[in-house]
Design brief:
By secondary structure, this protein is an alpha/beta fold. The protein has a domain of about 230 residues: Rossmann fold. It contains eleven helices and eleven strands. The strands form three sheets. The protein has a seven-stranded parallel beta sheet, sandwiched between helices. Strands 7-9 form a two-stranded parallel ribbon. Strand 5, helix 7 and strand 6 form a beta-alpha-beta unit. It is globular.
């Protein structure tokens, strides 16, 4: 890790190296620790919960609106009384992973108060009642302005939208309140948990292949997409190493949505045996929030390339649909 940290200080070099975080030798038994996933019903939280349940002896998950239907503990992290009550009932977690929060930049811009409560204030509240645990805060590439990457974890963060600002403040609160907090900044996540997933750029692109019309996709902003399973596995490895501070992982390739769409179509045609024969048209897409142009971060671990990830996602989706059709 020290060697990585030294190299990371030279992002023009390290941004183009493919670091691989090797698995620590772990015996066949589960790790003897108790883990709480706050936000286990979220897009990333769901994947982390499933992986960690296979790897740790005790794993609990919380959610809010979907908690009861998915069999998780219901916890409103914007309510300090509820947090206090929850941790007096479950006082001794070894690891707490915070994946709740508002992750939609446009929504964050509109609902600033709620976003601040979720992404910053909740961490302060948790810190008052959860003692002696390893605290993990899941952050975002949006802490950077996107003008001067690749960014090492120590690079100057200057977010250009409110979502990025709240994630940066959430990082600071985590590092200030928990002595060995781990902050993990992730690139654009894509993947598939099931039909109730929230909409992501990649999910929308895949869904539009069923429509008999040209596909329009942004050709300006460059993303470094990372598969859910790879991001979750990197998080597990970082916990095994016992590191603290800020680490980053994003996809190995920088792609705009038009380029993503072209690659998705190539893989989709192969897997489905159908052909998407309409043009893919590049446009500039604007949202409410300012979007950083290219937040290429230096990777502590290198996820699989986009084509491989899409292949994995589409096969997983296909299995789900087949199960569904057979009434399972």
């Amino acid at each position: 890790m020290e060697g990585f940290r030294k190299l990371e200080e030279k992002p023009d070099l390290s941004g183009f190296l493919q670091f691989i975080l090797t698995e620590k030798e772990v015996s066949q038994t589960k790790r003897n620790k108790s883990v709480l996933i706050i936000g286990a019903t979220s897009f990333f939280g769901n994947t982390v919960y499933h992986l960690f349940s296979q790897e740790y002896v005790t794993v609990r998950g919380t959610g809010f609106s979907k908690a009861t239907s998915l069999d998780f503990d219901k916890l409103d992290v914007t309510n300090e009384e509820e947090i206090k009550k929850y941790f007096s009932g479950h006082p001794d977690f070894d690891i707490i992973v915070y994946i709740a929060g508002e992750a939609n930049a446009d929504l964050a811009e509109k609902e600033r108060n709620r976003t601040r409560l979720l992404n910053i204030d909740a961490v302060n509240s948790i810190a008052r009642y959860a003692k002696n645990c390893k605290f993990v805060y899941i952050s975002s590439e949006y802490v950077f302005d996107g003008n001067s990457g690749p960014y090492g974890s120590g690079a100057r963060a200057s977010p250009i939208n409110y979502y990025g600002y709240t994630k940066l403040e959430g990082e600071k609160v985590s590092l200030r309140n928990f002595s060995d907090a781990l902050v993990v900044r992730l690139g654009a996540l894509y993947g598939y948990n099931g039909p109730n997933d929230k909409e992501t750029s990649v999910g929308k692109l895949i869904a539009s292949l069923d429509k008999p019309e040209p596909l329009r996709a942004d050709n300006v902003q460059i993303k470094h997409p990372v598969l859910l399973e790879d991001a979750a596995r990197t998080l597990l490895k970082l916990l095994d190493y016992g590191v603290s501070g800020i680490y980053q992982t994003n996809g190995p390739e920088g792609l705009n949505k038009q380029e993503m769409a072209e690659r998705i179509v190539a893989v989709w045609n192969k897997i489905t045996g159908r052909t998407f024969s309409f043009p893919i048209i590049g446009i500039e897409q604007a949202g409410i929030a300012g979007k950083p142009l290219n937040t290429h971060m230096v990777n502590v671990d290198t996820p699989r390339p986009f084509n491989e990830g899409i292949h994995f996602l589409l096969l997983k989706q296909k299995v789900f649909k087949e199960k569904d059709n057979h009434g399972h």
